[in-house]
Amino acid sequence: MTKTLTYALALVALLLTAAGPALATEGHAPVKVVVLLETGIGGGTQAQGFLDRFLGVVAERSGWSATESKYTTKRSRALKYISRQSPQLGLFSLAAFLELQATQQLDVVGEAIATAAGGRRYYLVAKTGAGLDTCKGQTLASNHLGDPRFVDNVVFAGAARLAEFRTTKTRRPVQTLKAVIRDQARCALIDDAQLAALEGIEGGETLEPVWTSAELPPIPIVAFPNAPAPLRKEFVAALEQVCVGEGAETCANIGVQALRKANQKVYDDVIALYRSNEVAKP
Question: Whole-prediction pTM value?
Answer without folding.
Answer: 0.85
